[in-house]
Amino acid sequence: MQLLDISLTVTEDMPHYPGKLSPRREIIMDMEQGHIANCSAIYLDCHVGTHIDSPRHFTRDGITIDGVDMGRLCGPCRVIEIRDRREILPEDLADAPENGRILFKTCGSALLAAGDDDPTKYAYLIPETAERLVALQTLLVGIDGFSVDRYGTKEPAHHILLPAGIPILECINLSEAEAGDYELIALPLKIGGSEAAPARAILRRP
Predict the structure, then answer these.
(1) Which of 47, 51, 57, 158 is catalytic?
(2) Domain coordinates of the chain in residue numbers?
(3) What is the pLDDT of residue 205?
(4) Measured between alpha carbons, how far is 143 from 123 in angstroms, rounded to an integer?
(5) Would you say the pTM of this structure is higher than 0.90?
């Protein structure tokens, strides 16, 4: 059984969306300094690194991350690869299943792996694609970029997917994942009342 970690490693210099805060790790106890154990604390923006947006992110009374149905976050998924363009179009979903989990592999995986934080280089869903995902009753949408939306817009895909109850998995690295079918395990931290949370995301292929 093959396990593929598609999460980004959290570091202070990791790429992130403009305006978001860089992770910070503080050493509380250090055995090299004579303490009895190694202990640390972290400060992490909920939208930096691999994370899941819940409906609360863009809907006033939407479900918070601790209330998202775990059945949406774990189970069969399909990786769809988009090459040579940034726009993800409705026709890219021609073979997408209903009631599925869809992850988009684009130019973003290589950009994230290289530490590139220029948001204008990343792929995005056009609104019609988001609407098609809703029509397919998609359980979860994932992308290898900071956002499912084009940078500088009013984030229409978020406003389409999240009110429909579809959580969004962002900042995944699909460099080692071929297009095809997998099992997804994406577990966000259970932060009460939060609109999003950092997550560890794994693909499993028998």
Answers:
(1) 57
(2) 2-10+46-205
(3) 87
(4) 8
(5) yes
